[in-house]
Specification:
This protein has 80 residues and is mainly α.
């Protein structure tokens, strides 16, 4: 779960959107964004969760056709 939150935080920081969003108590991204991608990371990127945040983000992008519409929208919202 920590890697999911960090990946979303990196997406937020990389686009400058972090300052425009209401962060969740010390975490990057909104609660809705975290929820939207949690299952996708667990399903499609579990094998790389310990390899760093950018690797998790790359995995989500590589599996774009398989991820949920909600997580796909989170990526689009952060220009990913």
């Amino acid at each position: 779960m920590r890697k999911i939150v960090l990946a979303i935080a990196l997406m937020s920081l990389s686009t400058g959107a972090f300052a425009q969003q209401a962060p969740v108590a010390g975490r990057g991204g909104t609660a809705e964004e975290q929820v939207a991608c949690t299952r996708d990371v667990e399903k499609h990127c579990r094998a790389v969760m310990d390899q760093g945040d950018f690797t998790v983000l790359a995995c989500l992008k590589e599996n774009r056709a398989k991820i949920s519409k909600g997580c796909d929208q989170v990526l689009k919202n952060h220009n990913q």
